[in-house]
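To assess whether the prediction recovers the assembly geometry, we first specified each molecular entity separately, as shown.
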Amino acid sequence: MKKCYLDNASTTQTKPASVYQAVNDTMQHNGCSPSRGGYGCAIEAGRKILDARSALARLFNVADSRYIVFTPGITWSINMVLLGLLKEGDHVITTSMEHNAVTRPLRCLEQEKQIEVSWVKANALGQIDPGQIEQEIRAKTRLILVNHASNIIGTILPLAEIAEISRRNKVLLMADCAQTAGYCDLDFQNLGLDILAFTGHKALYGPPGTGGMILSERAAREIKPVIQGGTGSSSASQLQPEMMPEKFESGTHNTPGIAGLGAGVKFVLDIGLENIRRHEQALLEQLVAGLREIPFVTIYYSGNTEKQVPTISITIENLDMGEASILLDERYGIMTRSGIHCAPISHQTIGTFPLGTIRLSIGYFNTPADISYTVQAITELAKEYNK
Ligand SMILES: Cc1ncc(COP(=O)(O)O)c(C=O)c1O
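The predicted structure of the complete assembly is given in tokenized form:
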């Protein structure tokens, strides 16, 4: 049976060969603690981490790569910022299109630290007018936190305009770029963000358990390190160092993972964001055009395939979404994700809560043949359940 992976918004299953090689090489030849010893393989391990930091600095146009912090993924990055920044009485502005990586820590902080949160409501296409965010700003507003692109319908928020609002009002801005890093052109300096949070295993093609955040000088100064410990530097001190990136990078690094992430980022740089986008957008257009022709199928997306990431949702009449996803896999070898996709408030916003949707998300390794095969399979299922 043909295999067709359309769950790239969860994680990219196929990685470039260079990523496997980087992980393997590092495991075999650089298994020493980076920057923890003066011997060759420890120095080499440190160099691999530096290399990955430099590749990320090129991709995101970061002037000083010390402000790129490695974490085990964006969920960690977001939690590190929220827990290290917010104190009782602070106010946060976020949106109704967030992932649980944002919603859950914020709901907990609302209850336990009396943090106030304004949840700016998007329309059914996932769009938000930046003016809605500005209206919510008050004296106690400490942070604006937005999901750059929806992980269920792909809608991209106007980050540059939101950044302009945050700057004008001197409020810190964090962008959850889980779905846009490796797809959108994210220029950290020109956008003027305070915190760009990213994960490594999606469109950056790194291994799972990798990711990080890029901080402005102000954010690096104002966020407290919630994880503290050995950094291999300033070891005589019993206090966490203030210097970057050590302030936020305690404990032994995941060197093989970070080396793999570095290789993934270099792959993205070599292919070029524009070429990646051109390829995936063409597939997205093919998918939406094909699905539109199928009776009994409803498509949920931003309404404009040119202005979104290549992720959409669908529902099929008279068919449970969980069952549909299983049938797609068992009968056709098509891997999709069904349900709520860790984003209940997004589903409430677009009107698909609590049943959820089937999500189809495209990656660089998908082909036009994958898309026509998937459209054909969904056509057959929709017909079978709507006789
Ligand atoms: C928008 C968004 N934020 C956060 C996350 C969490 O990513 P991770 O599991 O890599 O920490 C995801 C993952 O699907 C996501 O789509």
